[in-house]
Each structure stands twice: as structure tokens, then as C-alpha cells.
Design goal:
Blueprint (H helix, E strand, L loop, with lengths): L14 H17 L26 H7 L1 H21 L10 E2 L2 H25 L5 H12 L1 H9 L9 E2 L11 E3 L4 E3 L10 H4 L6 H21 L8 H27 L9 H26 L4 H12 L11
Antiparallel strand pairs: 1-2, 3-4
Length: 322
């Protein structure tokens, strides 16, 4: 390519900067309340059956804000429209392909490699971690077999879903917020991958897993960077970051599932949907873990938290008295 013409979209920033502002407002509301009455682990909904904003108690609605919920739902809708459009593109380059047991086993094989790389990255960088982070990362070594057993479910049966062209590098940073709508940009995929690899058809749920992780990272980054929180109580307040990611990500998922319902983008069976989406959440979380070990060790807690959630191993401490 000698040149490229792009449309200049009027916007007020990307999705990450927008959600960072919403997190700052969220933290203000938390700090202004009696936290003894809040329990960040009393969550409604699941990853495959998320709740809507209107289903939440008034207290939680006030805490998150209708504006944030509406934008998360809009992102889910636009993401679904993107995937539906990519599945209907012209020619064989866009024609959907069915999953196969051979392909599903290859997904597991790549997961095995990621687990191995994660343990190696941990061992290589252990001496550079704080004592607190070391304790948290020990979970990865202790639960290695549990992670592999969860990933093994991806090839225990054939899933009747599509592989299509996907965004390939999806996150809140790839969204432009105009104030009235959401535009998706940068379809070039991950630049470190070859051109042929970026053109491969994959499950659109990989994009969804990446976006869910993006909601978690922006939440935790907002708390880590906040000047409103005393550093001594930061760790004890991180469950509120998880609470925000759980519900805001849930609003995104609910809108997405409603739009693609009845298509082969997602499995018809909710149990199958949970297996596939959880597999990609573990995969993407391990990839982030490896990157964070080299660049931002404090943030490995985010990827580990997501893996704990997938495995059903989240601790549920009370926040009373925080």
C-alpha cells in the first residue's frame, strides 16, 4: 500500500479515556458514602446471563450512573452489528466457517503453551515483584492444573458456531466516542502478527473476551491512578473496581447477546456459550499476564482475578469497616 485515505470522525476521545472519566466519578461516589453499607461481592447476573441496568437496586443505579450504563450497552450493540456485518461480507474471505473438533483441539494446544509461558515469565521475574504481588501470583502456579482442566472443555464436544473475520485487536481504545454514538476503528489487527495470521477467521467471542478484559483493566487502572484514594487503603478498595467491571461489562454483554441471538456467532446452549467465552477469557488473561510481568507487574492482579472468576475461585471478603 502506498497510501491510505481515512474518514475523520468528530469525537470526544476514545472509549478508554471516556470510561476513565466515568471511573473517576464512580470513585467520588464511593468515597462519599458509608462503605460499611456496600458489599462489592453481592453481584447479580453471570457472564452468560447478565442483568440490565433497570434490574439493579436504586443504590447501585446511582453508583454507576445511567449515562455509563447506556454507553456500555451502545458499545455492545455496535459490536454485535460489526460482527454481523463481517459475517456477511462479500466473497470467501468473509464467508463464515464452522468450528471443528480439530480446530477446537488446536485452541487447547495454544492454551497449554500460554500456561507454560506464563509460569516461565513468573519464574523469570519473581525477584522483581513486591511481596504482595508474589503472594497473588502464586495462585497461577498452584492452580495450573485447574486452569488446564477448564480449558480442556473447549474440545470435549463440537460447538455449532462460526469462525468469521473479526476485529482482532478489540478494546476500549479502539472506540471513538462522538457523544451521540460509538464508532469502531483500527481493523488492522495486532501489528506483531503476520498479515496472513491477522486475516485468519476466528470466533467473534475472542473480541468479546478482549473487551470484557478491557473493562476490567480500565477499572483497575482508574483505582490505581486515583488521587482520591489513600495508598494504604487501595488494595481494600479494589473489589469496587471489580464491581464496576462486572456490571458495566454485563450491560455490554446483554446488549450484544440480544442482537446476535439466533445466529451462529454464539452457541444456542448457554452452557456451551459459557465454555467458549470462558476459554477465551483465560486465553486473553494469560496473554495479558505475560505482557504485564515484563511491563506493569502491579497489573497482573487484574488478569489473575479474571482467571479466578472463571474458575469460580474468587474470595468473598466482607468490605464492612473498609
Amino acid at each position: 500500500a502506498l497510501g491510505m485515505i481515512q474518514t475523520l470522525v468528530e469525537n470526544h476521545g476514545d472509549g478508554e479515556s471516556y470510561m476513565r472519566e466515568r471511573i473517576a466519578n464512580y470513585i467520588e461516589r464511593i468515597m462519599a458514602r458509608n462503605r460499611e453499607s456496600l458489599n462489592a461481592y453481592d453481584k447479580k447476573g453471570t457472564i452468560t446471563d447478565p442483568v440490565g441496568y433497570n434490574e439493579l437496586p436504586n443504590e447501585l443505579q446511582d453508583l454507576f450512573g445511567s449515562r455509563t450504563a447506556d454507553q456500555a450497552s451502545l458499545i455492545g450493540l455496535r459490536t454485535a452489528e460489526m460482527h454481523l456485518l463481517l459475517s456477511k461480507g462479500p466473497g470467501k474471505d468473509f464467508h463464515p466457517e464452522e468450528y471443528s473438533l480439530h480446530y477446537q483441539r488446536s485452541v487447547f494446544s495454544s492454551m497449554q503453551a500460554l500456561v507454560r509461558e506464563s509460569i516461565q515469565a513468573l519464574e523469570k521475574n519473581m525477584e522483581y515483584l513486591s511481596e504482595e504481588t508474589r503472594r497473588e501470583t502464586q495462585f497461577l502456579a498452584d492452580k495450573r492444573n485447574d486452569i488446564l482442566n477448564a480449558a480442556r472443555k473447549i474440545y470435549q464436544k463440537k460447538f455449532d458456531i462460526w469462525k468469521t473475520r473479526t476485529h482482532g485487536s478489540y478494546s476500549l481504545r479502539k472506540l471513538l466516542m462522538s457523544g451521540k454514538d460509538v464508532m469502531i476503528q483500527d481493523f488492522g489487527g495486532k501489528p506483531m502478527k503476520s498479515y496472513s495470521a491477522r486475516r485468519l477467521k476466528r470466533s467473534p467471542l475472542r473480541d468479546i473476551a478482549e473487551m470484557i478484559i478491557s473493562f476490567h483493566y480500565v477499572a483497575y487502572e482508574g483505582f490505581f491512578a486515583s488521587h482520591q484514594i489513600n495508598k494504604s487503603e487501595l488494595r481494600s478498595l479494589l473489589p469496587f473496581a471489580d464491581l464496576w467491571a462486572h456490571y458495566i461489562g454485563g450491560f455490554f454483554l446483554k446488549a450484544y447477546f440480544e442482537k446476535v441471538h439466533g445466529t451462529a456467532i454464539i452457541p444456542k446452549d448457554q452452557g456451551d456459550l459459557e465454555i467458549v467465552l470462558n476459554t477465551f477469557l483465560i486465553e486473553k488473561s494469560l496473554t495479558h499476564f505475560i505482557d504485564n510481568m515484563e511491563t506493569k507487574p502491579d497489573f497482573v492482579v487484574v488478569s489473575l482475578h479474571i482467571i479466578r472468576s472463571v474458575l469460580g475461585l474468587l474470595e468473598k471478603p466482607s468490605l464492612a469497616g473498609v
